[in-house]
């Protein structure tokens, strides 16, 4: 990692801790740490050829806008899923079928920053239906269907800037929660920086997510102008609540590294969303005009369309008493995590020297007793001592995030001292610590955010990989490290590189996903307006300067494969349907000089469209880009392009004779 990037992190930690950072984060490397026996580590992560990993592990791609899918414990990369980015591997976001998934009120955005994967839940356990993830820069949520490993729905979050504390799922995926990182004038307008404290606001959003195609903002809560960082819904007894950390309760708007680090404690917001629901039902929310996009990929047409929404329900805390409280929390808190029992709410403080643990039952009692220190913008602030269960001492420097195992242990990532600290709940005693290489951000225990963690492994997601891998120019690979947590002592098993920056990740038992896979799309159900379900149904039509070509692909030819009558400047739309009805037989399609969509990758039973605009006369080839059979290299064709005004009629042919030969050949090649 470059010094610039390193100094960004350091700056946030403040100058005082700088020396310590260098001392710890750059401590001389041990080759292997915490492992008694290397052979044992190797065998623990060895997944023999032909065998499967026990877990799927979904990593955020960070600034790549994607999601990485790994197998654990091997650390093998299985797939890169495009979400908030165009993807050159499968044409996502380039072709006209998927482009709309990137639509926003700001326009079509080809690339964003993803942070927190969140698996859908039933009864507080991962159910394997969907994975959600946020776009941080232009606030959005996405739904990834885990039967297809495909992004199928995106929703813009209005009245928000910096969609960081998101999208964490409640116990039955009733809601995904979100909070603004950057407070802004709301409704957005031109205000002076000096009016930050009075005119700038934050929001908390509750987003309906439990039904495909119906994702929407249920309601928003207008909050004081702090920076809200991360959130976690309650579980069990605390189900119905969600907790958000905030920093910059100083409400600084310049040089935050100094000006937002003054208060000894900031606040954690405790939000009773069931109370919010009630107030909305009683008509206490205001209707705020706004504009945001909802984009859905239709199952039958394989095409995404956009809908523009024009208002949200906004709740003001003063109109809904009992909905929002603040819990003082030391110091510039970052992570907040709720333990599997739902009783303990664990904060992380970037500049804290302890790990603060709030107790849900104590919070409830303090609220009932009105045990408040004061009000902040009309929101009651619970007495620190009244909600505090314990402060874990000796947690390392800069505790950030916590995950849980099935045995009552907590694993805390500690950024500045670059380690994982294991401690007990309710004991609040540090039990073990292990160094990470280097500068850990998030960490993830298998099932570690659920009511029933699987345990077994914790993965450290590190900000710096420095000398751990072969160098690759100015930017080194991002990295994760797998630790065994089955015994008393954590043991490092494996380093593995990751795609993009792995902010957070979630591991789920493979058995919850692998048997539900869609193997191909049913051709009979394909309702794309330009589908051709047989070669007889292919054809060409011209309307003005636009030429539609309905085309099919099957091992190993296109129909038609000779196209005549196209003219310079025509917009040629190749609608290619993959006729295969078998698992793992995509076909590719590329036409020379296609400058807008470039290529297609078409799944069995699916239709995709390539836009092609010839700018000179000639005869131009197209071909299949995915090695699909012994005669893949024969899977090709030509378009003949005449000058404007030519009298050559639009026509298409597929040579019957060669077709037969090819069918026989590919049949035997299968
Ligand atoms: S957080 S910088 Cu998930 Cu620790 Cu984003
Ligand atoms: Cu189809 Cu190669």
Account of the protein in words:
With 670 residues, the chain is mainly β. It is 11% helix and 43% strand. The protein has nine helices and 46 strands. The strands form ten sheets. Strands 6, 7, 8, 9, 10, 11, 12, 13, 14, 18 and 19 form an eleven-stranded mixed beta sheet that branches. A six-stranded mixed beta sheet has the order 42-41-44-45-39-46, with no helix packed on it. Strands 36, 37, 38, 40 and 43 form a five-stranded mixed beta sheet that branches. A hairpin with an 8-residue loop joins strand 31 (440-446) and strand 32. Bound molecules: (dicuprio-$l^{3}-sulfanyl)-sulfanyl-copper (RUQ) and dinuclear copper ion. Dinuclear copper ion (CUA) binds at residues 553, 556, 587, 624, 626-628, 632, 635.
The termini sit apart by: 47 Å
**Whole-number mean pLDDT:** 92
Name the bound molecules.
Answer: (dicuprio-$l^{3}-sulfanyl)-sulfanyl-copper, dinuclear copper ion
Write down the overall geometry: globular
Largest sheet: 11 strands, mixed
Count the E strands: 46
Provide the β-strand percentage band: 35-45%
Structure annotation, total helices:
9
* Secondary-structure content class: mainly beta
